[in-house]
Design a protein that fits this description.
single chain; mainly alpha; Rossmann fold; 3-stranded antiparallel sheet; globular; binds adenosine monophosphate
Length: 297
């Protein structure tokens, strides 16, 4: 999670290498549809150009289809999804259906000034799809890392990275996506990473956040301490209750003894009351009535 330009895509690409699982970028999927001129691509084109969001049902269909592919069987990194509350809820439902719960949600925290600098400097290689930034992360020349083997990356600026569209995208992020953060912080999944500075430092912070959020997962108790302590207390309470039930007949015997003593020696009244106090409530009531009757006699 994070505003446009917060570095989600760049860091996701680094995680792909680290974990050998695919990056699923909904923005990339839509751009591919647009480039291929599919019906969805044509529909999305106008929406993306305005910096708005494609409808939730379409996005959930895209995700359902993509996460079901074999290369995602061992896990995946979602980049740019979910972006709205219904998408987040739809994702939770989908993950439950597939039996693959979300391990971690990471928010990339970047100041507004830096966001603008990043977006305006962002360039993508049309050959290998790698993302660069002419200010902060320019490509090496000659290129040695173009997956298409070119000695030079063919850089272009995304249409929606132009100034007017960027403003709208930031507004849409605040309105539709930021509220989703509380959905994840509420479930304890959200980790925030300061995403400014050197790329390698951000990756390090990201890996640390992932380790923190993924590692406690097996130790479910940590996530819900209240529930665990309740669960822990339960077995202790039950035997205690059983003991009380079994102990009930005992006071009856005692009560008979104290009643006899009381009749024989009225001065022992105080100790009789003390014994009665140890009796269960019902027995105590009965014991309390008896001396009164005797007094009346
Ligand atoms: P991105 O590359 O993630 O910044 O996405 C580029 C554009 O694709 C966005 O500005 C939206 O128009 C569209 N888009 C990407 N992901 C989503 C999504 N999860 N929900 C709706 N629209 C999306």
């Amino acid at each position: 999670m994070g505003a446009p330009g917060s570095g989600k895509g760049t860091q996701a690409q680094r995680l792909v290498k680290q974990f050998n699982i695919p990056q699923i970028s909904t923005g990339d999927i839509l751009r591919k549809h647009r480039a291929e001129g599919t019906e969805l691509g044509k529909r999305a084109d106008a929406i993306m150009a305005k910096g708005l969001l494609v409808d939730d049902a379409t996005m959930l269909d895209i995700i359902r289809d993509r996460v079901s592919q074999p290369d995602a069987a061992d896990g995946f990194i979602l980049d740019g999804f979910p972006r709205t509350q219904p998408q987040a809820e739809g994702l939770t439902k989908l993950m439950k259906e597939l039996g693959t719960p979300i391990d971690s949600v990471v928010l990339f925290d970047v100041g507004d000034e830096e966001l603008v600098r990043r977006i305006s400097g962002r360039r993508t290689c049309s050959l290998c799809n790698k993302v660069f930034n002419i200010y902060t992360a320019p490509p090496a020349t000659p290129a040695t890392d173009c997956a298409e083997g070119s000695s030079e990356h063919q850089l272009f600026q995304r249409k929606d990275d132009e100034e007017a569209t960027v403003k709208e995208r930031l507004r849409v992020y605040e309105e539709k996506t930021r509220p989703v953060l509380s959905y994840y912080s509420g479930s304890g999944l959200l980790r925030t990473v300061r995403a400014e500075g050197a790329l390698a430092d951000i990756t390090e912070r990201l890996l640390k956040a992932l380790a923190e959020s993924v590692a406690p997962a097996p130790a479910a108790p940590k996530k819900s301490p209240a529930k665990k302590s309740a669960a822990k207390r339960r077995p202790v309470r039950r035997p205690a209750a059983k003991k009380k039930a079994k102990a009930r007949p005992r006071p009856v015997v005692r009560r008979k003894k104290t009643a006899a003593k009381r009749a024989a020696a009225p001065k022992k009244k105080r100790s009789a009351v003390r014994s009665a106090k140890r009796l269960p409530a019902r027995a105590r009531k009965r014991a309390a009535k008896r001396p009164a009757r005797r007094r009346a006699k």
